[in-house]
């Protein structure tokens, strides 16, 4: 008997397990049928459902309405999530919040045209007393006669004369400009005038420092806090500066009526150079 058990031990265990599984399956089938009967009985004997009245769902509807009217996400402005604030320590140790610096704090306060002029200030029996002056240079006074060649002391020769229309006694001098080869008209009451360049005043009003730049010209450099900017163009109503490190250009418009900046446009190309052509208007 012991030999039989040792030889068929695994088979006996497997048969016992299979018999248990069969009994469990049979019981499960009977249990499912009993549960179905119980459920059907409970459904058939359940009381009729009553409609809900005066249900307060205001809290839920308000929550849904707030979700549909969520505030717009703003990534610019005064918040500091994506726009970090710069703080600078003053010499006395106090911290200053820098909200405006660099070219944003630069404004144009005045733009003045500077002219090259030639004037006839006096007349002698044998010639004319002339005064010429370039922008940013002292005037040059010289005596000139008709037909003289230009020289260092007499830079703009008189090549001819005409009488003024309706006033024969007034002479209009024909003066030659050797630099350009043109001939311009000059009289005692109507000097020749040509726009040469512009002179500007600017103001830098940052959060931590205020500075004023007086009598600045084309190619001058402005130090704005830690950044350096170069004036690359000046017109009658705008100044264009360029960051010497990033080469980014910024135009600062100016209104002659108000004397202040009215707008700003970045990365703009200068419209005209500071040096202008001749304007022979008296």
Poorly predicted runs of 5 or more residues: 261-282
Percentage of residues in DSSP E strands? 35-45%
Tell me, what's the shape? rod-shaped
* Helix and strand pattern: HHHEEEEEEEEEEEEEEE
State the secondary-structure class. alpha+beta
Biggest sheet strand order reads 5-4-3-9-10
Mean pLDDT: 83
Compute the separation of the termini in Å: 142 Å
- Measured as a percent range, the helix fraction is 10-25%
Q: Work out the number of β strands.
A: 15
The number of helical segments is: 3
Q: What does the main sheet amount to?
A: 5 strands, antiparallel
Polypeptide structure, described:
The chain is an alpha+beta fold and 282 residues long. Among the domains are: 114-195, no CATH class; 214-266. It has helices spanning 2-7, 9-44, 58-68, and strands spanning 86-89, 95-98, 106-123, 128-133, 140-144, 158-164, 167-177, 182-186, 192-205, 210-216, 221-224, 227-235, 238-243, 249-253, 265-266. Strands 5-4-3-9-10 form a 5-stranded antiparallel β-sheet, with no helix packed on it. A 5-stranded antiparallel β-sheet has the order 11-12-13-14-15, with no helix packed on it. The chain has a 3-stranded antiparallel β-sheet with strand order 6-7-8, with no helix packed on it. Strand 4 and strand 5 form a beta hairpin. The longest helix has 36 residues, at 9-44.
């Amino acid at each position: 008997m012991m030999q039989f058990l040792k030889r068929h031990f695994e088979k006996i265990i497997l048969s016992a397990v299979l018999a248990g599984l069969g009994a469990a399956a049979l019981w499960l089938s009977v249990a499912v049928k009993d549960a179905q009967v119980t459920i059907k009985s409970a459904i058939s004997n359940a009381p009729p459902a009553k409609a809900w009245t005066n249900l307060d769902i205001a809290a839920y509807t308000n929550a849904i309405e707030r979700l549909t009217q969520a505030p717009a996400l703003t990534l610019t402005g005064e918040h500091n999530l994506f726009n970090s604030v710069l703080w600078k320590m003053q010499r006395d140790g106090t911290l200053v919040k820098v909200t405006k610096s660099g070219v944003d704090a630069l404004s144009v306060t005045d733009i003045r045209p500077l002219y090259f002029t030639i004037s006839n200030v006096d007349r002698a029996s044998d010639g004319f007393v002339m005064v010429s002056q370039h922008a940013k240079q002292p005037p040059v006074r010289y005596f000139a006669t008709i037909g003289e060649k230009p020289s260092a002391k007499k830079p703009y020769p008189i090549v001819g004369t005409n009488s003024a229309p309706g006033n024969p006694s007034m002479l209009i001098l024909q003066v030659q400009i050797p630099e350009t080869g043109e001939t311009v008209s000059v009289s005692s009451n109507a000097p020749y005038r040509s726009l040469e360049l512009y002179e500007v005043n600017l103001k830098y009003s940052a959060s931590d420092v205020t500075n004023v730049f007086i009598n600045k010209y084309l190619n001058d450099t402005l130090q704005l806090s830690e950044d350096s900017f170069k004036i690359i163009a000046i017109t009658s109503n705008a100044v264009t500066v360029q960051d010497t490190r990033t080469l980014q250009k910024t135009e600062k418009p100016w209104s002659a009526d108000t004397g202040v900046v009215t707008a700003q446009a970045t990365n703009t190309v200068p419209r005209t150079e500071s040096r202008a052509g001749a304007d022979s208007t008296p």
